[in-house]
Structures are given as structure tokens and as C-alpha cells.
Automatic annotation (TrEMBL):
This is Polyphosphate polymerase domain-containing protein. Coiled coil: none annotated. Residues 12-227 form the VTC domain. Pfam families: VTC.
């Protein structure tokens, strides 16, 4: 994707569960036998995800999440691996129980300008998502708030466009300062617990449904952003 493109709108189902380390071992062994991994994975089968979430002074995104508001949205900056050379601005939203995401590429220099409080360039790019962020920075005082980092192992299954992810070692630095040059994230709000996510389009194939079964998993809202906000 080039710097001048925005991904199309797509709504998907999204299921989240928290699982214990023993369940993680069993589930991972099963998934590795059944499904191919994401092609971006490293030698150990996983890759690092680092995000910087935005919120208003009134914690609008956080409160809507905790209150279970059905129509809600979050803006974030995200990169994969240890280098922020390839960055994206993403808007994640939920409508009538379905989740969607729009994204646009940002350069490292643009991200640095944004974190320094510069926002005029968002209009200069002429992209709807960047223009929307500009107006919300000005109109709702949306600001960078919390860094969320974790290690992800992802599996794919073409029927149903299924993506199963296991997010481990959730960590944060408590503020937005270390997002672009993270020396380390010492704070761990969910230590020893893995977040299992299952995303799919119109249907979830029985093979996947059976594969992700674990006896003691806890289904429901599990926001990595909300967990990391505890350290603000």
C-alpha cells in the first residue's frame, strides 16, 4: 500500500477470549498443525505489534468501551516489528456488533510531526481518514494517550476469511513518549495471560470453531487498550 491510499471499508465479526498459559500451549500446538501462519511472522512464528492509541481529555474511547456502547471508534498509530519505518494510522470502529477498520500510511517524519503537535499536514495529504483525524484533534481535543505492545502469533484460514491470533506478553510504558523509539516496556497489565482473537467475515467454519475450543477460556470484552490505561 502506498502513502496515498486508504483501505476500503469492511465489517467483520470479532471474538475475544482470555486463556491461561497451559491452554495457550495446547491451542498453539493444535493451530500449528491445522493452519498456516501469517507470512510476516519471524523465525519464532510471531511478530511484535506496537500501537499508540488516541483519546480525548474526557476518555471518550475508554468510557465507551467499558460501558459497552455499540457504536464506537478508536484512532491509533501502529507499526510491526522493532522499527517504526512503516507506520499506519488506523481508525477501528464497532457497529451493531461488527468491527471494521480504515487505515492510511504515514511516514516516520509525519508521525514525529503529529506527536510533536503538528497537524496541518493531515489536510495537505487530501485523504479522508487523515482529514477526519485533523478535525477531531481540533474539535474534540483528541490526543495520543497510551502505548500498547504485544507479541502476536497469527494463523489464517481462507474459507470465511478467518484470522486467529494469539497475543502474548502485553506491555506498555505508561505514556506515549516511547512509542517511536521503545527501549522497553516494563509494565505488564495482563502478565501470564494470552488474548485469543478470532476474526471472520460472514461465517465461522466448523473446523476453526472446534480448533479454538478450550475448556476454561473467558469470552467477552478484552480491550488491550483499556488494560494498559491502568498505568496512566
Amino acid at each position: 500500500m502506498t502513502a496515498g491510499t486508504t483501505e476500503p471499508l469492511r465489517l467483520r465479526h470479532e471474538l475475544k477470549h482470555q486463556i491461561a498459559p497451559q491452554e495457550d500451549l495446547v491451542l498453539t500446538h493444535r493451530l500449528r498443525k491445522l493452519f498456516p501462519r501469517d507470512g510476516h511472522a519471524g523465525a519464532d512464528g510471531s511478530y511484535r505489534v506496537t500501537s499508540l492509541y488516541f483519546d480525548t481529555p474526557y476518555d471518550t474511547a475508554l468510557r465507551k468501551k467499558l460501558d459497552g456502547v455499540d457504536r464506537r471508534e478508536k484512532f491509533r498509530l501502529r507499526y510491526y516489528g522493532a522499527s517504526p519505518a512503516f507506520l499506519k494510522l488506523e481508525k477501528k470502529y464497532k457497529v451493531n456488533g461488527l468491527c471494521g477498520k480504515r487505515s492510511a500510511r504515514l511516514t516516520l517524519q509525519e508521525a514525529e510531526r503529529l506527536l510533536a503537535g503538528e497537524d496541518a499536514f493531515l489536510l495537505e495529504r487530501g485523504e479522508p481518514l487523515l482529514a477526519e483525524l485533523y478535525h477531531k484533534l481540533r474539535g474534540t481535543l483528541l490526543r495520543p494517550r497510551t502505548v500498547v505492545c504485544y507479541d502476536r502469533e497469527a494463523f489464517l484460514y481462507a474459507p470465511g476469511n478467518v484470522r486467529v491470533t494469539l497475543d502474548r506478553n502485553l506491555r506498555t510504558c505508561g505514556d506515549s513518549a516511547g512509542f517511536l523509539s521503545p527501549a522497553g516496556f516494563p509494565l505488564k497489565p495482563l502478565d501470564g495471560v494470552t488474548v485469543l482473537e478470532v476474526k471472520y467475515d460472514a461465517f465461522l467454519p466448523d473446523l476453526v470453531r472446534l480448533a479454538v475450543q478450550t475448556p476454561d477460556r473467558r469470552a467477552g470484552a478484552c480491550s488491550k487498550y483499556a488494560l494498559c490505561r491502568r498505568f496512566d
